[in-house]
Amino acid sequence: MDVTFQFDWQAAIDSIPFLLEGIPWTLLISFGGLAIGFVIGIVFGLLRINPVRLLRWPAIAYIEIFRGTPVLVQVLFIFYGLPQILGGPINALTAGIAAIALNAGAYISEIVRGGVQSIEKGQREAGLSLGLSRPQAFRYIIWPQALRRMIPALGNQGIVSIKDTSLFSVIGVGELVRQGQIYIATTFTALEVYFMVAMLYLVITLSLSYALRLLESRGLVGQ
């Protein structure tokens, strides 16, 4: 059977205005979740290297649970499961941000741990020899250097989290994929619309990648 198909560029272009309505939601969920996840990551990353087992083991448990389970399962649990415990519904946007925050927080915890442990112990000892307390040595000597080394990995995590938002169409969040699904339901142009959805995600992630390379080229991150 001879089957011919022609890509409808006009249909793809026509879908762009409707798809663009989902970008603010995609960015809000990803960057909102990442901001919260960064705070979570700092706390649990430092607890992860704490010598006190009572503090270290809960951090390890959190990290392993959220790194070891799919973000889709996490958002479904938050959106559908938690309301049964809390006795009330959870907004889809709130569930999406929470899922990104908890998932990214687990990965950022390991980034923080690696960044802090990458600083030579001699630098902390040098700070103590200058009369700084341990918290001061960490704040003024260890953390600034560790943060510079963490930025590339944090940027990569940002890209992953942006792409993870595509899964949240299952709970009705109006991000890019959800907008595409709604548009396809009335136009039946799945190939063209999903092609444009992919291109828009690519523009967002490449822009973030370019910003990170720009920082690296100016010596603002890394060693």
Automatic annotation (TrEMBL):
InterPro entries: AA_ABC_transptr_permease_3TM, ArtM/GltK/GlnP/TcyL/YhdX-like, MetI-like, MetI-like_sf. The chain crosses the membrane at residues 25-47, 59-82, 88-108, 193-212. It is found in: Cell inner membrane; Cell membrane. Its main location: membrane. GO terms for cellular component: ATP-binding cassette (ABC) transporter complex. The keyword Cell membrane applies. Keywords: Amino-acid transport, Cell membrane, Membrane, Transmembrane, Transmembrane helix, Transport. Residues 23-212 form the ABC transmembrane type-1 domain. The keyword Transport applies. One of its GO terms (biological process) is amino acid transport. GO terms for molecular function: transmembrane transporter activity. It is a multi-pass membrane protein. Part of the binding-protein-dependent transport system for glutamine; probably responsible for the translocation of the substrate across the membrane. Belongs to the binding-protein-dependent transport system permease family. HisMQ subfamily. NCBIfam families: HEQRo_perm_3TM. This is Putative glutamine transport system permease protein GlnP.
